[in-house]
Amino acid sequence: MTSSPSRDVLIDMYRRMTLIKQNDERFRTIIKAGKIVAPYYSPRGQEVIPSAVSVNLADTDYICTIYRGLHDMLAKGVPVKLLWAEIAGKATGTCKGKGGPMHITHPATGVMVTTGVVGSSMPIANGLALAAQIRGDKRVAVAYFGDGASNIGAFHESLNMAAVWKLPVLFVCQNNEYGEHTRYEVATAAKRISDRAAGYQMPGVTVDGNDPLAMYAVAKTAVDRARSGGGPTLIEAKTFRFHGHVFGDMDGYMRKGEKDAAMARDPVPAFRNWLIKNGHAGEAQLAAIESAIEKEIDVAVDFALSSPNPDLAELRRDVFSEELSA
Amino acid sequence: MTTVTNTAGPKPLNAIQAVNKALDEAMGLDPNVILLGEDIGDEEEGGVVGVTRGLSTKYGRSRVRTTPISEQAIIGAAIGAAIVGMRPVAEIMLMNFAAVAMDMIVNHAAKLRFMSGGQTHVPITIRTMTGAGFGTGGQHADYLEAWFAHTPGIKVVAPSSPADAYGLMLSCIFDDDPCLFIENMPTYWNPGPAPTPGERIPLGKAHVLRPGSDITVVSYSRVMNDCIAVADKLAKENIKVELVDLRTVSPLDIGTVLGSVGRTRRAVIVHEAVRAFGVGAEVAACINEALFGQLKAPVGRVGANYSAVPFSKPLEMAFIPTQVQIEGAIRGALR
Q1: What's the rounded Cα separation, in Å, for the pair A169 and A142?
Q2: Best mutation site among A171, A320, A322, A323 for testing chain B: the one with the most B CBs within 10 Å?
Q3: Is B310 left (phi over 0), alpha (psi -120 to 50) or beta?
Q4: In B158-291, which ranges are continuous DSSP H helix?
């Protein structure tokens, strides 16, 4: 296949997946221990999707993501220290502690907007793509969202506009089978979300979002198409979240055994085994990646917990361009 | 005295021409200025009342984009382009249709600067028209500025004359924050004195339209003209009304208002929006907080009836605040 990734890209995808997995594990530990108090929407189980997309993007490409977006941000390259400090609400965070986990922003790595509103990543991603199109700078925008968001009006408005204007944008739906607590088929009339692309005359692809090679191929095709002026693509990446909607929910709405089965197919160790078995990487090489990430997280946790809180004067800053008077 | 009789200077122009001129000049000055909106291209007749006429022909359909009827997508596209350095002017044809795009305006445009800790900002201008008196009924004519003024992070601008519309529009386009710009539809075609070319009117600054010592009348947008007419009438009885045009509803230039009321010690606030929970309540509260004890009368408020905008002409005319009501409120405060 022409879009088979090189060995370097395979290792890079594994590094990004591991970065997400290990950060998520540490976040849950720290939140459980009460050291950080924050709403947390774990992306564990969905690591492959943004990793496979991001290896096809540059820092100058844009993403808009959502409240369950830690994986999207990490895969795109947001510095781990700044991310942790923001989630801890500290002055040293990406957003000076003023956004929090649902509003991480880091333009230097192309993380332009993180929204807490279902469906709202898509209209704004169109605008990023519109700027790229008008300027002819060949940048690409990616909107991440969930299966639930494909039922909100903004999805349909955005896909239509992107198709009419041939915008360089990817609509990447991470279908994890549940919109909050509600099962896919209870809320969604379309058999496949990708079927909805036909209504907007754009390619729609359903892919196993936990299969790194398949996900990479689909993402690469869509990014290349957008970058070369071919217009938008809707990607439905099938996946599963391991820790419910929000951290602390008891999964009471899930089918028995469903989560255990998904966790037994954990895509991160599966890819690790595949890399070794097929001679793309050695055990020691991957272990070194994992321990480097662990150390990076150690540093980030210390940094976040020891950083100062924001100054109360921040309440008057960034409302408008001019600071408000006290 | 406020309209038309400008004999020596440049030709009078109406608000359609004034806004068109501001958009044209801004696009000429800065390639980052783009226009988005329903029907705005010349193939679609340059907007339903022609505010954008000629601009797609002059600047091309890449920068002047006729959009689908998709208010969320229009504002979303403007926001996305703005956070990477463009200065989009997005038209929401009628102010009531902003309701369709409230998530984009309120949760995103207004808040991204704060939520990102100042890393991104959203220099968009949302143009919208409204106003009762045209028989358009309950979903095409509301003044909804209080919704937006109650949202930190978005500036709300409401000019009362074509010249102000020109100068304020230029300021909105080149301001680094999101601005909501309210145009009055029924008076679109009324000519007024021409603006000074290139002159921008600062945002967040009220304008003392006419000095007076007996009472302060605070207003903005179309009804400012009713206030002028009432002030003219009362001047014949030697009642000196000071007229303060807010120009920008939010951020509110309370300093200018308090400076005026501190002198006159009487105030009436007039707006076309429904009186209850309106901008007038905020202005009155600010005056009371600062000047309690100095006021000679309770601060008066004049606004529209607490109902939807009615269709039937007699009902519609009774819904809108009238010159009779404004005069009554002034006389009441002077008693």
Answers
A1: 6
A2: A320
A3: beta
A4: 162-174, 223-235, 254-264, 279-291
Residues of B labelled catalytic: 71, 140
Tell me whether 0.90 is exceeded by the ipTM. yes
- d(C-alpha B236, C-alpha B245), whole Å: 22
- Per residue in B77-129, pLDDT (tens digit) is 999 999 999 999 999 999 999 999 999 999 999 999 999 999 999 999 999 99
Region of A198 please: left (phi>0), alpha (psi -120 to 50) or beta: alpha
pLDDT digits (tens, 9 = 90+) for B192-220: 999 999 999 999 999 999 999 999 999 99
B300-304: strand order across its sheet: B207-210, B241-245, B215-219, B267-274, B300-304
For every residue of B48-106, DSSP letters joined together read SSSTTTTHHHHH-TTTEEE--S-HHHHHHHHHHHHHTT-EEEEEEEEGGGGGGGHIIII
Instruction: Render pLDDT for B122-175 as a digit per residue (tens, 0 to 9).
Output: 999 999 999 999 999 999 999 999 999 999 999 999 999 999 999 999 999 999
Do the Cβ atoms of A317 and B177 come within 8 Å?
Answer: no
Among A117, A131, A160, the residue with its CB nearest the CB of B68 is A160
